[in-house]
Amino acid sequence: xxxxxxxxxxxxxxxxxxxxxxxxxxxxxxxxxxxxxxxxxxxxxxxxxxxxxxxxxxxxxxxxxxxxxxxxxxxxxxxxxxxxxxxxxxxxxxxxxxxxxxxxxxxxxxxxxxxxxxxxxxxxxxxxxxxxxxxxxxxxxxxxxxxxxxxxxxxxxxxxxxxxxxxxxxxxxxxxxxxxxxxxxxxxxxxxxxxxxxxxxxxxxxxxxxxxxxxxxxxxxxxxxxxxxxxxxxxxxxxxxxxxxxxxxxxxxxxxxxxxxxxxxxxxxxxxxxxxxxxxxxxxxxxxxxxxxxxxxxxxxxxxxxxxxxxxxxxxxxxxxxxxxxxxxxxxxxxxxxxxxxxxxxxxxxxxxxxxxxxxxx
Length: 362
Ligand code: PMP
Fold this sequence. Notes:
Blueprint: H1 2-8, H2 11-14, H3 22-25, E1 31-32, H4 60-70, E2 77-80, H5 82-94, E3 101-104, H6 111-118, E4 122-125, H7 136-141, E5 146-152, H8 164-174, E6 179-183, E7 205-210, E8 223-227, H9 229-238, H10 246-255, H11 258-283, E9 288-291, E10 298-303, H12 306-315, E11 318-319, E12 321-322, E13 332-336, H13 340-357
Parallel strand pairs: 1-11, 3-4, 3-5, 5-6, 6-7
Antiparallel strand pairs: 2-8, 7-8, 9-10, 10-13, 12-13
The chain binds 4'-deoxy-4'-aminopyridoxal-5'-phosphate.
């Protein structure tokens, strides 16, 4: 029976390996450092009691507040169910299955390929060059038929920003041919690096944002697409009629109030200090070969034996994200920045590990 159901599915869906989110991977930890979430919940109360009514498709207050926060006009903002939905809406609106392609530069976020595959759209990859920067000549060679180029800055999982001059060159080479989609899911940790201010110069630039990271609202599922009005109008054609539940819009509006922004910025300050402290401590641990600088709320580190470390910490209830299968990231683990205590748990666990590895003292 189940075989015959399988045969009914689209071939690309049958062949699809779904994105393995941190939640799907499971684990029994008490220190969750594998999904780049904010470690503590920010309390909210629902202010609207109108659940008998359908919500607004694009809640005005949320749009206006996000536009003010991002420094763009409300007509340049689309709100959706997380940045993940933005990634997908762009493919739905711009890519003809079996004809057009998307391009991105591994190692990077896994949903660009999964969304493309789901819609039967070809994806091309151009590996990042040293320090995970764009390989512009190789991208130029691969652009034929490409409608969307996803770039991620700060990049997940490496934590680096892309060189702005390279992004300018990419925007020049794609003008009139393809959209450049800058995934800024982590930009609130380094707001000065945002490309939102470039929208006025580039009609084909799109910026993705989310409340899941610095705003501590991963469970809310609320993200934003910033783009010029023509792009937003096309996305509005393919978005669901009611993409945001009323409580989601309610909480998002509060998170984007002056007080909400102040709390977020305080959290960012603490988190960045915790990150720098973790980086310094990791660099002093045996078995850690490299710790890469980060502009986000996670750190990538290369270990001598990543799988042993991953498993040993997992057994102690500390859940990290293994990145060693990504191109160029052999023996790399990604550690989300938790509370100071959670980061200390990581360091203490690494120290006991290296102590038990060490030859016995006479
Ligand atoms: N882009 C990147 C680079 C991410 O890491 C994530 C979250 N894992 C997303 C987009 C999706 O964010 P959201 O929770 O808003 O769907």
